[in-house]
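User: Hi! I'm working on a homework problem where we have to compare a predicted structure to a textbook description. Could you give me the structure for the chain below?
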Amino acid sequence: MHHDISSTTVPSPWIACIHPQGWMYFFHPEFRVVTTEDIRHPHVLDIVMNKIPQYTSEDTDGELEFQLCGLSPQPLPFDHMVINHKHALASHKLQEVQNKNMTSLAAHQFSRARNHYWQYMSRYPVHMPMPENAVQEAVDALVWYFTDNLVSGANSTVPFSKGECEELLRLLQHSNIYSGSSPSKTVFLAWILKEVYSFRYAEHYGKFTEKQSREFRNQNAKPRRHEPARHSSALKDKLLNVFLVAFFFGIPWTYVAHVKSASTYKGRLANVRKTWDAYITRLVQEYTNFLLIVSRLSLIMTMRT
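Assistant: Happy to help. Predicted structure tokens:
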């Protein structure tokens, strides 16, 4: 679905495409180049056209697409992205997305290239149709995340909670997203799949055996131990403890214990937030009780005097 601004403002054969958010990018169908630079200005158009041969001449497959990320006259490592729509891959390195190199990609390279591809499609969804297997791929990932939430419970680290999986799967099932293609549908699916592949890249998806994966997860789940900066004598510790209990009702020790408990990562980040919110509520209640005790003690001391 292409949205032409007008034939007079956009130089032919460039096509102006409008993202669902309302901003514009430009696509050259002959050179298969995408840019967000405003080529309606002649000097910008000249720079972009001079940069195009620096990258498109390397396309030995004749099927790749190129995103220009800047206006530097000299080629830079990260001033462009190469996109392979056939295999849903994108990378700053041409060799990672060429058809002849598909079978030699390592698991982490594949996950990273897929993540880059879906990031790209979420930003530039207008000029290309949604890949045919995108819906099924999103559904498969969400079904597994739903299962992991059931099996692992609070220790699940997948990017979507059980409730989020249910809502997304319901939307995918009951909407007409299976029929036809539109920029909004592409952005929606791209958002899901870039989260999927970002998680897989971080989790070293496809790299370890079951035993190695379990050891890796257990190793990363263990909290880091920090040596104390200084060692206090037992007598000083006891005196400090007596002082805090006598004058502050042990609240500092309770505070430290709660902070350690609330900040310990046990699976999903949402669980940490839930624990932290519960701790804040409890802290407010304990502080209120402390103020009540102090007020009563102050009143008693005043009455005695």
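For your comparison, note the following. Residues 3-7, 224-230 have pLDDT under 50 and may be disordered. The beta strands are 15-18, 24-28, 33-35, 65-68, 80-84, 89-91. Good luck with the assignment!
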